[in-house]
Amino acid sequence: MSKARAALVASTIGLSVMIAGCQHYLIAAPGETSVAVYPDEQTYSKIADLKKQGGIGGMIGGLGQNFTAKQIDNNTPVRIVTSDDLGDVIEVIDGPNKGISGFVPKSSVAVNF
């Protein structure tokens, strides 16, 4: 294979990867089958703080999560709308929950190239 042809093939592959982009998807915690998607970062922070307290506060945090967060299946493809140090605002792009958006912590999103 000539150098020019190899360069053309490499450029084509690189362009294809760039056009396709990388795919983000939700990843559940070990032992879980879904990811909690919160309406916003403030709600997530409040619920996480309550759960850290343990006892009654932790139980209230668990109940709060059940009422405020939507449970989305593991490995659901998403688009990242915005991102910060704590997590990402995502939009579900495929599956039965397509169109749902909300906040998830950083540990709940993975990249598939």
Would you mind describing this structure in some detail?
This protein has helices spanning 3-20, 41-53, 55-68, and strands at 23-26, 34-37, 70-73, 77-83, 87-92, 101-105, 109-112. With 113 residues, it is an alpha+beta fold. The strands form two sheets. A five-stranded antiparallel beta sheet has the order 6-5-4-1-7, with no helix packed on it. A hairpin with an 8-residue loop joins strand 5 (87-92) and strand 6 (101-105). The radius of gyration is 19 Å and the shape is elongated.
Based on CA inertia axes, which overall geometry fits?
elongated
Question: What share of the residues lie within helices?
Answer: 25-40%
Give the biggest sheet: 5 strands, antiparallel
CA-atom Rg in angstroms = 19 Å
Quote the distance from N terminus to C terminus. Answer: 27 Å
Secondary-structure class: alpha+beta
* Percentage of residues in strands: 25-35%
Main attributes of the structure:
alpha+beta; two-stranded antiparallel sheet; 3 helices
Present the secondary structure layout.
Layout: H1 3-20, E1 23-26, E2 34-37, H2 41-53, H3 55-68, E3 70-73, E4 77-83, E5 87-92, E6 101-105, E7 109-112
Antiparallel strand pairs: 1-4, 1-7, 2-3, 4-5, 5-6
Compact summary:
The chain is built from three helices and seven strands; from the N terminus they run H-E-E-H-H-E-E-E-E-E.
